[in-house]
C-alpha cells in the first residue's frame, strides 16, 4: 500500500510539474521532472528520426528541377543560358520558384547526346553555330529576340579599319570576316589563328599580338563588355554571319511539356529571319569554314529584305545577291533557298578554294 501511495504521489507531482512548466516556461526549484521511461525515450528517438527523414525528403524534393538547361561552359554560353533562365522564370510562376530551373554545363560535343539521353531538358545554342540539319528526335522551335547583328571593331590605337596603317595585322578566325575585310582593305593582313573566347582574344589584343580584331557585337552586349568597342561596322561593310545574334532553344521532339515552356519565349520575327538565312546556307551547303554571309530583316513596309554573300577566302572575289518578299515563313524559306542556289550557280566549282 505504501508503494502504491508513493507511485500516485510521483504521478501527481509529475503532472503538476508539467502544468507549471507549460504555463510559466520553467521548472519551479521545489519540483524536479522525473526522468523519461525507456518507452518514452524510444518514442522520442523515433519521432526525431522521422522528423530528420522528413526534412531530408523536403530538401531532396526542392533539388529536383522542373527544367534542366544544358549549355557550354564559356562565359558567353553561360550568359545566354542565364538569359534563357530569366525569361523562363518570368513566363511561368512555377518556374519562378527557387530551384525550379537548373543550369547544367556540358561539353559542346555532348550537348545533343545529353538532350537525347534526358540528362538535360532543353539546350541553349548560338544559332550561328547550329548545323543546318538537327540531330534526329530533336526540334528547335524557339528563338529569343535577336541581339544586334553587326560586328564590332576593336583596337587600342585606331577607331576604324580605315584608320589602320597598311600592313597592320587584324586578328580573326572567321573566314567571313577575313574575306570581306581583305576585299575592302587589301593592304591589311589577317592573322587567322586568332582563336579563343572573347576574353582570350581581347587579352591577345592587349598583349600586342595584333593591332585590331573584329567581334560580334551581340556577344559583347550579352557579356556587358561594350566598353572595348572602338566602332561598329555597318552592315554594308560587313554582312553578318547567318543567324548571328540569335539564340536558339532545342528540346526532344516528344517532350510536349518542354516545347510548351519554350514556345512562350519564341520571338517569331527572329525565328522567321533565322529560317530564311539558314535556308540560304543550306542551299550553299555551307559551314563556318566557308566565307558565307546572310541577313534577313523586316523593312519599313513590313516585308522581308534578304541579302546574301559568298566570297573567296582571300577576298579577291565577292558575289552578292538580295531578295524582297512577304514576311511569311514559306515565302522566306523560298527566298533564302533561291538566293543560295543563284550564288552557287554563279560561283561555280572551286570558288571557295582560292
- The number of helical segments is 10
> Largest sheet, described in full?
5 strands, mixed
Given helix and strand content, the structural type is alpha/beta
- H/E topology pattern: HHEHEHEEEEHEHEHEEHHEEEH
Our measurement of the CA-to-CA distance between the termini, rounded to an integer number of angstroms, reads 116 Å
Q: Taking all residues together, what is the mean pLDDT?
A: 87
Question: Spans of 5+ residues with little confidence (pLDDT < 50)?
Answer: 1-34
- Strand fraction: 15-25%
| Computed CA radius of gyration, to the nearest angstrom | 32 Å
Spatial order of strands in the largest sheet:
2-1-3-10-4
Shape: globular
Number of domains: 4
* CATH architecture name of the largest domain: 3-Layer(aba) Sandwich
CATH topology (level 3) name of the largest domain: D-Maltodextrin-Binding Protein, domain 2
Helix content: 25-40%
**What's the CATH superfamily of the largest domain, by name?**
Periplasmic binding protein-like II
The CATH class name of the largest domain reads Alpha Beta
How many runs of DSSP E, i.e. beta strands? 13
Amino acid at each position: 500500500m505504501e508503494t502504491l501511495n508513493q507511485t500516485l504521489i510521483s504521478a501527481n507531482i509529475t503532472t503538476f510539474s508539467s502544468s507549471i512548466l507549460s504555463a510559466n516556461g520553467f521548472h519551479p526549484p521545489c519540483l524536479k521532472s522525473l526522468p523519461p521511461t525507456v518507452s518514452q525515450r524510444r518514442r522520442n528517438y523515433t519521432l526525431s528520426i522521422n522528423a530528420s527523414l522528413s526534412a531530408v525528403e523536403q530538401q531532396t524534393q526542392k533539388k529536383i528541377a522542373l527544367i534542366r538547361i544544358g549549355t557550354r561552359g564559356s562565359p558567353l554560353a553561360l550568359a545566354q543560358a542565364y538569359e534563357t533562365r530569366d525569361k523562363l522564370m518570368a513566363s511561368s510562376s512555377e518556374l519562378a520558384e527557387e530551384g525550379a530551373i537548373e543550369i547544367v554545363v556540358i561539353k559542346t560535343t555532348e550537348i545533343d547526346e545529353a538532350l537525347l539521353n534526358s540528362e538535360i531538358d532543353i539546350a541553349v545554342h548560338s544559332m550561328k553555330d547550329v548545323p543546318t540539319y538537327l540531330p534526329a528526335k530533336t526540334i528547335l522551335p524557339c528563338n529569343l529576340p535577336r541581339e544586334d547583328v553587326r560586328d564590332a571593331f576593336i583596337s587600342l590605337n585606331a577607331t576604324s579599319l580605315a584608320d589602320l596603317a597598311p600592313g597592320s595585322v587584324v586578328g580573326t578566325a572567321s573566314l567571313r570576316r577575313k574575306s570581306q575585310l581583305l576585299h575592302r582593305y587589301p593592304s591589311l593582313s589577317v592573322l587567322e589563328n586568332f582563336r579563343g573566347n572573347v576574353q582570350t582574344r581581347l587579352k591577345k589584343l592587349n598583349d600586342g599580338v595584333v593591332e585590331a580584331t573584329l567581334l560580334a557585337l551581340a556577344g559583347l552586349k550579352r557579356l556587358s563588355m561594350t566598353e572595348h568597342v572602338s566602332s561598329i561596322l555597318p552592315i554594308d561593310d560587313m554582312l553578318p554571319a547567318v543567324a548571328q545574334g540569335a539564340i536558339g532553344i532545342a528540346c526532344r521532339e516528344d517532350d510536349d511539356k518542354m516545347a510548351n515552356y519554350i514556345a512562350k519565349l519564341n520571338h517569331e520575327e527572329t525565328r522567321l529571319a533565322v529560317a530564311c538565312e539558314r535556308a540560304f546556307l543550306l542551299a550553299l551547303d555551307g559551314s563556318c569554314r566557308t566565307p558565307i554571309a546572310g541577313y534577313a530583316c523586316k523593312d519599313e513596309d513590313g516585308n522581308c529584305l534578304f541579302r546574301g554573300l559568298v566570297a573567296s577566302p582571300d577576298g579577291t572575289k565577292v558575289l552578292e545577291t538580295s531578295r524582297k518578299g512577304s514576311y511569311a515563313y514559306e515565302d522566306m524559306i523560298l527566298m533564302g533557298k533561291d538566293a543560295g542556289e543563284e550564288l552557287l550557280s554563279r560561283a561555280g566549282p572551286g570558288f571557295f578554294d582560292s
